[in-house]
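RECORD TYPE: inverse folding
INPUT: C-alpha coordinates
STRUCTURE:
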Protein backbone atom coordinates (compact mmCIF):
# COMPACT_ATOMS: atom_id res chain seq x y z
CA UNK A 1 0.00 0.00 0.00
CA UNK A 2 3.01 2.25 0.01
CA UNK A 3 2.61 2.89 -3.72
CA UNK A 4 1.98 6.45 -4.78
CA UNK A 5 -1.63 6.49 -5.99
CA UNK A 6 -2.81 9.05 -8.50
CA UNK A 7 -6.30 10.49 -7.97
CA UNK A 8 -8.03 11.81 -11.07
CA UNK A 9 -11.33 13.65 -11.35
CA UNK A 10 -13.72 12.37 -13.99
CA UNK A 11 -16.47 14.44 -15.58
CA UNK A 12 -20.01 13.19 -15.09
CA UNK A 13 -21.01 10.80 -17.85
CA UNK A 14 -24.48 9.32 -17.81
CA UNK A 15 -23.06 6.12 -19.29
CA UNK A 16 -20.97 5.48 -16.19
CA UNK A 17 -22.49 3.17 -13.61
CA UNK A 18 -19.97 4.17 -10.94
CA UNK A 19 -18.85 7.34 -9.14
CA UNK A 20 -15.48 5.99 -8.06
CA UNK A 21 -13.07 3.35 -9.29
CA UNK A 22 -9.64 2.10 -8.25
CA UNK A 23 -7.25 0.48 -10.70
CA UNK A 24 -4.41 -1.36 -8.96
CA UNK A 25 -2.63 -2.00 -12.27
CA UNK A 26 -1.64 1.65 -12.67
CA UNK A 27 -2.34 2.89 -9.12
CA UNK A 28 -5.10 5.24 -10.20
CA UNK A 29 -8.27 6.19 -8.36
CA UNK A 30 -10.93 7.88 -10.51
CA UNK A 31 -13.63 9.98 -8.85
CA UNK A 32 -16.63 11.58 -10.57
CA UNK A 33 -16.17 15.22 -9.69
CA UNK A 34 -19.71 16.56 -9.89
CA UNK A 35 -20.74 15.15 -6.53
CA UNK A 36 -21.27 17.19 -3.37
CA UNK A 37 -18.08 17.64 -1.34
CA UNK A 38 -19.13 15.11 1.32
CA UNK A 39 -20.10 12.52 -1.29
CA UNK A 40 -16.81 13.03 -3.12
CA UNK A 41 -14.85 12.53 0.11
CA UNK A 42 -16.82 9.41 1.01
CA UNK A 43 -16.32 8.05 -2.53
CA UNK A 44 -12.56 8.62 -2.22
CA UNK A 45 -12.50 6.84 1.15
CA UNK A 46 -14.57 4.02 -0.35
CA UNK A 47 -11.99 3.55 -3.10
CA UNK A 48 -9.12 3.72 -0.59
CA UNK A 49 -10.74 0.89 1.36
CA UNK A 50 -10.97 -1.06 -1.92
CA UNK A 51 -7.24 -0.47 -2.36
CA UNK A 52 -6.59 -1.95 1.10
CA UNK A 53 -9.06 -4.76 0.45
CA UNK A 54 -7.39 -5.72 -2.83
CA UNK A 55 -3.86 -5.33 -1.54
CA UNK A 56 -4.52 -7.41 1.56
CA UNK A 57 -6.85 -9.90 -0.23
CA UNK A 58 -9.63 -9.26 2.30
CA UNK A 59 -12.65 -9.87 0.03
CA UNK A 60 -14.89 -7.28 1.72
CA UNK A 61 -18.48 -6.77 0.57
CA UNK A 62 -19.58 -3.45 -0.93
CA UNK A 63 -21.70 -2.92 2.19
CA UNK A 64 -18.68 -3.29 4.50
CA UNK A 65 -16.53 -1.03 2.28
CA UNK A 66 -19.32 1.58 2.30
CA UNK A 67 -19.76 1.34 6.07
CA UNK A 68 -16.01 1.79 6.62
CA UNK A 69 -15.93 4.78 4.25
CA UNK A 70 -18.89 6.58 5.85
CA UNK A 71 -17.67 5.80 9.38
CA UNK A 72 -14.13 7.01 8.63
CA UNK A 73 -15.47 10.20 7.03
CA UNK A 74 -17.53 11.06 10.11
CA UNK A 75 -14.76 10.01 12.51
CA UNK A 76 -12.28 12.48 10.98
CA UNK A 77 -14.95 15.15 10.39
CA UNK A 78 -15.83 15.06 14.10
CA UNK A 79 -12.21 14.75 15.23
CA UNK A 80 -10.11 16.90 12.89
CA UNK A 81 -7.01 16.66 15.11
CA UNK A 82 -6.82 12.86 14.74
CA UNK A 83 -4.78 12.88 11.52
CA UNK A 84 -2.18 15.18 13.05
CA UNK A 85 -2.11 12.98 16.16
CA UNK A 86 -1.52 9.89 14.00
CA UNK A 87 0.94 11.33 11.47
CA UNK A 88 2.33 14.31 13.34
CA UNK A 89 2.18 17.80 11.96
CA UNK A 90 2.02 17.92 8.18
CA UNK A 91 2.29 21.71 8.09
CA UNK A 92 5.25 22.99 6.11
CA UNK A 93 7.28 25.80 7.60
ZN1 LIG B 1 -17.08 -0.25 -4.15
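DESIGNED SEQUENCE:
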Amino acid sequence: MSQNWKIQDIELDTHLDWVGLCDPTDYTISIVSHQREEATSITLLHELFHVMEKTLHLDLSEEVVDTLAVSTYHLFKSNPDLLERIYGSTKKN
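NOTES: Residues 46, 50, 62, 65 surround zinc ion (CB under 6 Å).
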